[in-house]
Design a protein that fits this description.
Blueprint lengths: L5 H18 L1 H4 L8 H11 L5 H9 L27 E2 L2 H21 L14 E6 L5 E5 L9 E5 L4 E8 L2 H14 L6 E7 L5 E7 L2
Antiparallel strand pairs: 1-2, 2-3, 3-4, 4-5, 6-7
Helix pairs in contact: 1-4, 1-6, 3-5
Length: 212
């Protein structure tokens, strides 16, 4: 198993969070308090295996990102907190547990369909742990299968039927490094480009737009 450098993860997450704090305070304000140790123990018991150390470290920083509420007198909520590509929002421990049950069921359906090879992601979702969700039925998760893909980060459009998965990064460390690099240099992450969003009141948050 590849050596995991948690100090590198902490460094890259800090870069990413610091950018949010300085440039997108509405997003930063949505980050929750750290998950409690007993929450992580309970989650691992429910999963039946240990969390990848980087995912555990992420939850020890923040138990996901909260949903914003509409400002008084307004029906529209600022899309703050959905600061990952495709509008993904970091999941809480409770959300991870709930979504894990969903993707396990999807994986079992895929096994029954007998359309994938045994090593395909689509039939191994019971070894994948979601960590972020968008509003369109997709999921971003960390691969927990032993072997060369351990710790890889994928995005899968479950709601759209796109079950092949897109590799976002080989680790959460690489993911947040690449995102921070893009934010600091006005560059891109895959085919996503960081695009600030500002509402009528002047509050700003981060969105990622696809450019072709």
């Amino acid at each position: 198993m590849t050596q995991i450098d948690l100090s590198a993860f902490e460094r890259e997450w800090t870069r990413f969070e610091s950018w949010l704090q300085a440039n997108s305070p509405a997003d930063h304000a949505m980050l929750r308090r750290p998950a409690a140790p007993e929450q992580l123990i309970e989650l691992e018991s429910r999963l039946g295996f240990e969390l990848h150390p980087e995912l555990r470290a992420l939850l020890q920083q923040h138990d996901g990102a909260a949903e914003p509420v509409a400002a008084r007198g307004s029906r529209r909520r600022l899309p703050a907190g959905a600061f990952l590509p495709s509008g993904h929002r970091l999941s809480s421990v409770d959300d991870i547990a709930s979504m894990y049950d969903v993707i396990v069921d999807v994986g079992e359906d895929n096994i029954d369909a007998d359309l994938w090879e045994d090593d395909a992601l689509a039939v191994n979702l019971h070894r994948c742990v979601p960590f972020a969700l968008p509003n369109d039925g997709g999921v971003a998760f960390v691969d927990h299968r032993p072997g060369p893909s351990y710790g890889h980060v994928y995005e899968m459009g479950i709601g759209s039927g796109d079950l092949d998965g897109t590799l976002w990064a080989t680790s959460l460390t690489q993911l947040f490094k690449t995102l921070a690099d893009a934010l600091e240099s006005d560059g891109s992450f895959l085919y996503y480009w960081p695009t600030p969003f500002e509402d009528a009141s002047g509050h700003r948050c981060l969105e990622w737009q696809i450019r072709t």
